[in-house]
Amino acid sequence: MRRAASLALFLGAAFACGHIPQGLWGRTWHYARAWGLDPYLVAAVVWVESRYCPQAVGRAGELGLGQFMPGTWARTTGAPPEWRAHPDWALWATAKHLRELYYATGGDWYKALAAYNAGLGALRKGAIPASTRRYVERVLSVYRAWRRG
Known about the structure:
Layout: H1 2-11, H2 22-34, H3 39-50, H4 70-77, H5 87-104, H6 109-118, H7 120-124, H8 130-148
């Protein structure tokens, strides 16, 4: 618990984890719009990835709101890996990475979301794994629900 408390001080914000604080919602919209994306889509990705928990750590070492692996983080941001846990950097990087994947997949959101989950290299090798298809459907389900309001 001590480590979580010190991380909270580093982040300068209370942990979200299962709800979206107004500040993080506003920052999601800001960074999504800055990259020309639908804020609801960026928010849906972050929700499915981390439930808006800045301190979330995945099984394979993914970290932060956008659940970035160190290599993807470095390619996307050029920032130090420990910044993956910072909400502003994570939201900015999530939006930037989604936009890059959208263009890399020829403007196909389904493929861009699949690439966010499985990696662009894996996507280019052929078939989309069942687990990745389920991931994309979860993101799109959250996205549709939030768009309907």
